[in-house]
Write a structure and sequence with these properties.
- By secondary structure, this protein is mostly helical.
- The chain has one domain.
- The protein contains three helices and two strands.
- The chain has a two-stranded antiparallel ribbon.
- The radius of gyration is 28 Å and the shape is elongated.
- 2% of the residues are buried.
- The C terminus is likely disordered.
């Protein structure tokens, strides 16, 4: 048998784990790819639940911020001020007023 110095390479055709067959591209997935996929899914769940008026944990930050915007709008309309409204420039000495 004659051996040569040329290297031989194997090409990965499929990945099999627990009876499930995957494409070899799954070996190239990074933590950043996984995090991006999870964040996209969370955004989709939040958007869907807010659109359907169905409360979910993913939509809580958006609901709280929307409620805060409503409170700020009311405070601006009735010339009422509170510390968090002053922080964003509504009421007090900020000079914001409605004509």
């Amino acid at each position: 048998m004659k051996l040569s110095n040329r290297s031989r390479f194997c090409r990965l055709l499929q990945v099999i784990e627990s009876g499930t067959v995957y494409d070899p591209a799954v070996m190239d997935i990074t933590d950043e790819d996984m995090m991006a996929s999870v964040m996209t899914a969370i955004r989709e769940v939040a958007a869907l639940s807010m659109g359907a008026n169905y409360p979910t944990l993913a939509a809580v930050p958006h609901v709280v911020i929307d409620g805060y915007k409503n409170v700020l709008a009311i405070a601006l309309e009735v010339d009422y001020t509170f510390p968090l409204a002053q922080k964003v420039g509504i009421g007090g000495s900020s000079g914001c007023s409605t004509p």
